[in-house]
Task: structure prediction
Amino acid sequence: MKVGQRLFLSVLPAVLGLFFVAALAYWGRYARTAPELVIVLAAVAALASLVVAWRNTSYVAHRVQRLAGHSWRTSGESIASRQHALRELGMIDELDDIEATVAGLSDAVVRAREDAARHVREAVARAQEVEALLQAVTERFAVRAQEAQLPLHILLSSPFGELNENQEEMLGAAMSAVDAMDTEVRDLRKLVQLNRGQLSIVRQPMNLAELLRPTLAIAAARAESAQVQLRAVIADTVPRVTVDAVQAQEALTSLLTDAVTHTEKGGDVDVDAGEVDGSLVRITIAHRPALAATDTAVPLEMRLARRLLEAQACTMEVTGSSTRIELPAESASHIER
Result:
């Protein structure tokens, strides 16, 4: 039976009741007596109407409640098979079609969620496997680099026999390449440790001038050899910052030396540090004129510097030839705690 027919049958008792009430009103006047047949029919119709209305209303309400509350316990396939059997008997209605559609959609959503959760678990497992592999490789590379550095250093400092100028240059180039490889391997190893949560970060209040002193000294030496002018302005009223001194200095040193490296000879590198508000201290590194970038890939040391700063609740933003670093001030850390 269709839903429309059920609703029509639910309304029909009210229509019949209206006619019987009109009939009773006609025969209920003075000196008129209602026929017994009318009274019997009215009573039978009232009881039948009550039963039909109750059954149809409860049926529709139950089916709607099942659709709204997803109270079925069977899968979409079992609902489809049951539908097929009811269709052959001619007992199916629109609510059965709607229920089958909703059940199919629900099964599809459940399967999609299970597939997504499985893909996430597989991706996490692969990422952990790759991180473990990278850590093992970096440890072996570090050992191999140290094994190569020692004989090269001995050959350069006290060569066995006479070495011509070309041989010394070749040994020096090899030594520089091994040193660069060792530095990159160490950076990669630390980056893997950061991603795996194995690097200890201890944040403590520290004066900004003391934090930048070794960084500026290293950058000044690099700037002098690169014929670049380095200027630093640190406001006297800057509050202390809450960072891990060792990790923050390593990140800031990488950023400053990178700015010096990518500045043309005779150019300028300006470092400005001041308080933004009561919760942040901003360090701005600007260099000009900047060298044209030959490689658009972000260097490993810059990636490590960003991750080291983010691990200390700092932010880093690179815009053209300017880099802005924001560090949490001591007052902000106290409020946060």
Observations:
- The radius of gyration is 41 Å.
- Residues 71-76, 332-337 have pLDDT under 50 and may be disordered.
- Residues 94-157 form the longest helix (64 residues).
